[in-house]
# Entry
Amino acid sequence: MNLIKILGILVFSLQLSQLSYASIIHQKIVLNKGELLTVDSVQVPYYAFNADTVFGQTNERLKIVIGDSLVLSVMNNTADVQEFVLTDFSINRTIAAGATEQVTLHALKAGIHIYLAGKSGKQIDLWGAAGMLIITNQSDAVKSTFYWNLKDFESQKVLQLDSGKSVDWSTYYPDYFMVNGLGKDQLVGDAASNVKGAVGESILIMLTNTGNVNHSIHFHGYHCLAQEVTSKRVQKGCSKDTFPLEAGDGLILLLVPDKPGFYPVHDHNLIAVSGGGKYPNGIFMVLDIK
Ligand SMILES: [Cu+2]
# Structure
């Protein structure tokens, strides 16, 4: 047997051994339209990808492990034709009203990605319809994990888009800011976004910016390590306390607290810690380390 054949068999058996850990994950998400209740009780139309046909303000989080294949059924439970886009996986599907499309993707490496409804037409990805796809290795999949999907919107522009008008984004002046589609009252005590942990523990924070302005997340008390980046501005492997995210960026941060404490994390794009013009609100979380 020549060397090339032996190498070929080796590579093949290596692939087999990796495949033996892989699973096929079937998941369904449903694009719903609903009403978002802001902190000052303003109601605006809003979209989200939920687990079923009941509208909720938080998009489903898709979480898989390296080696997995995700078979994702996407149902369009709205009255319009919609798109489902996952740019990092070259997925762009048109879905008729009431129809379901199935997409398949293979998780080859760790990272964080954004899935969204199309950027054309009413641009509903900018008023809700954008969530996270997270790929980790096996050991990270069982770590304590928190999620910050950052969003912003301007209620007047949402109303214009909803009525079929186009908007001038050069005059965009967002008045509401959210984490996982939630505002202040809903975020206080929220288990998915407020970090609880212990000194020395490895804690993962999943961050995406699915809004339309830049955000800059500042940690008080601790530094984090940028473990995976989908960003031109943050270097993989850097350790710091402020992480800028342009629209469309994503980060997987590792926090290993060196002391106990109760600290805030907030957006240094300071308008984003308001809601309807009132402070404090918006992109504001707490770290509770024992
Ligand atoms: Cu600060």
